Amino acid sequence: MKKLILSLTLLFVNTSILFAEEKIDLIPSSGYDRAGIYVNLAIFWVGIIVLIVLLKMKLREIERVQALETQEDEEKLPLLE
């Protein structure tokens, strides 16, 4: 019984220490630093959007080339008349 009471006491004491720590701000308080973070985020997302657009363009080009190849193969086949 003493071990149970001791372990519960230590559990509550240890968690209360965690709640007593000071709060750390994730976003800087100065406007200049905040603006820099937002600019970097905007550049990051624009870069991702550009990469997605480039991938779509490449996929369309691949599909177009494949369609042309199949069309050329069909033209080369001899017709049985």
Task: Describe the protein's architecture and organization.
It is a single chain. The protein has a domain at 29-74. Helices cover 79% and strands 0% of the residues. It is elongated and about 100 Å long. It is built from 2 helices and no strands. It is mostly helical and 81 residues long. It has helices at 2-19, 31-76.
Structural class computed from helices and strand pairing: mainly alpha
Helix content: over 70%
H/E element order: HH
The total strand number stands at: 0
First-to-last CA distance: 99 Å
- Major sheet: none
Which spans have pLDDT < 50 for at least 5 consecutive residues? none
Average pLDDT score: 82
Determine Rg (CA atoms, Å): 32 Å
Number of helices: 2
Strand content: under 5%
Rough shape? elongated
What is this entry, summarized?
The chain is mostly helical and 81 residues long.
Keywords summarizing the entry:
mainly alpha; 81 residues; 79% helix; 0% strand; single chain
Q: Mind sketching the topology for me?
A:
Layout: H1 2-19, H2 31-76
